Amino acid sequence: MAKQIAIRDAFGAALKKLGEVNERVVALEADVGNSSKSILFGQAFPDRYFNVGIAELNMTSMAAGLALSGMIPYVNTFATFLTSRALDPVISLIAYDHLDVKLCGTYSGLSDSFDGASHHSICDLSAVRSLPGMTVISVCDAVETEKAVFAAAELSGPVYLRLSRAPAPVIYPENMDFQVGKGIILREGSDIAILATGYMVHKALEAAKMLEKKGISARVADIHTISPIDRDLLIDCAKTCGKIITVEEHSISGGLGSAVCEVLSETCPVPVKRLGLTEYSESGDYEEILEKAGLSGACIAEKAEKLIKGN
Fold it and tell me: What is the rounded radius of gyration, in angstroms, for the C-alpha atoms of the chain?
């Protein structure tokens, strides 16, 4: 079994590591530092760490001011609150002025499983993906998390970094080549392409192994950057495989599936099946509610097989 590391732990460690080499980095959190693990940065750099309390809108506005002062603010709270309560200053201050603020949405998707629908984040990608100039990154494991945290500091302008809560299998070696805007093909295939993001990447790999046992060759790609999306990779997958499945722990409206369809409808139209959420979920065990939502490896494999058969 692959080693598992919680994405939130990887984020906290990476942020602290970044702070050690970049003195312009500051961190802000809305009384969730112990949950998001940004507290690790705060313990190391108390003068560059701000717990503003449960005041997401104020926190994000403060980050805009810090960015205008030459700092690189990493703002973190639960993804659902960062992209709802704080959306006004994200739009009017940060995105509009293309400020160098890094928005870190933790506990994304259904990963805060036992806290129920109020804490699940299934609309965050659609909220930020439409903002001009906003880079949107959704990571799948601990290695990719650290790479993305460091890459965000080098990007000019705002970044939304989507982070899960749950332990996730480590897919990548430490020396992986992470490039913003460039997807990664993890498994070659020719019958169907499974394009996944975030925690769903390892579910897609599980599905591909199941399909292989049935003689179906499935390509799997990690689309870690939702915006700007890797158009060349999408077109190549469409031309090579002819059929596409997108998998995301997010509403099927406005996220990865929508982004893929937007590109392929204009460049290389092929059948696309979007797998994701179509309704609010419930409180419960993480893997169980993913299964109920049709986001397990077996569910993905079943949908892929049906698409190949034309169903």
Answer: 19
The per-residue pLDDT for range 208-266, each reduced to its tens digit, is 999 999 999 999 999 999 999 999 999 999 999 999 999 999 999 999 999 999 999 99
> Do the domain assignments include residue 179?
no
Domain count, the chain: 2
Pick the catalytic residue from 20, 23, 56, 188: 56
Distance set, CA 135 to CA 5, 126, 258 (Å) = 25, 13, 16
In the annotation, is 20 catalytic? no
The string over 40-72, giving b where at least 16 C-beta atoms fall within 10 Å of a residue's C-beta and e elsewhere, is: bbbeebeebbbebeeebbbbbbbbbebbeeebb
Of 196, 222, 227, 250, the closest CA to residue 80 belongs to: 250
Whether residues 79 and 33 fall in one domain = yes
Q: Which domain holds residue 224?
A: 184-308
Q: Among residues 113, 139, 169, which one ends one of the domains?
A: 169
Q: Which stretches within 177-268 are classed as H helix?
A: 200-212, 231-241, 256-267
Are 146 and 212 members of one domain? Answer: no
